[in-house]
Amino acid sequence: xxxxxxxxxxxxxxxxxxxxxxxxxxxxxxxxxxxxxxxxxxxxxxxxxxxxxxxxxxxxxxxxxxxxxxxxxxxxxxxxxxxxxxxxxxxxxxxxxxxxxxxxxxxxxxxxxxxxxxxxxxxxxxxxxxxxxxxxxxxxxxxxxxxxxxxxxxxxxxxxxxxxxxxxxxxxxxxxxxxxxxxxxxxxxxxxxxxxxxxxxxxxxxxxxxxxxxxxxxxxxxxxxxxxxxxxxxxxxx
Length: 238
Hints:
Order of helices and strands: HHHHHHHHHHH
Number of strands: 0
Largest sheet: none
Strand content: under 5%
Helix content: over 70%
Distance between the termini: 57 Å
Number of helices: 11
């Protein structure tokens, strides 16, 4: 089966948007996971932050896209100001699609990073502090290295989720060929077009194959990193 040019276009755009979604949301997810994993954080603040982080999983994606449109749309005060001052326009552009996809997939990254951080032995931080390590040095030398498996796994899972995002993207940035028409939107468009079943089949197979590659890759990378970290810990104890 020869792939249609529209399928290649949608595939490339999907990978581009999903990649940028993970790139901008990963640092935010790391900071949120650190805050949620801190034992000294007040319970009410932890619950509030945890609720806000997981809100994209509860709300319909269309609602998230609508909120973004009302906040960053061309007629919204903030969206108009950003375009006038900085020349940034998120609505109806691929950057807006990556913003929407990143928000929807953010909880996956936070969850994976938080589990990794909570598994770190707190005595390591106490030992590092007794040796004079600053908070930033403890983050850089303890938290970040030991959170790498969760970071990689969460990022790749979020990438897969961003590839399949539909509601938030079509609501916020519409369905523009070559600009915001990702694989899910291209499948929807093909199904609405007479005789578009063949193209929809191609796009669906591409989506399934790409998602499987990402998920299998995430599992393999996470296992490899965990094995290497375990070997390093073993040799340090010898």
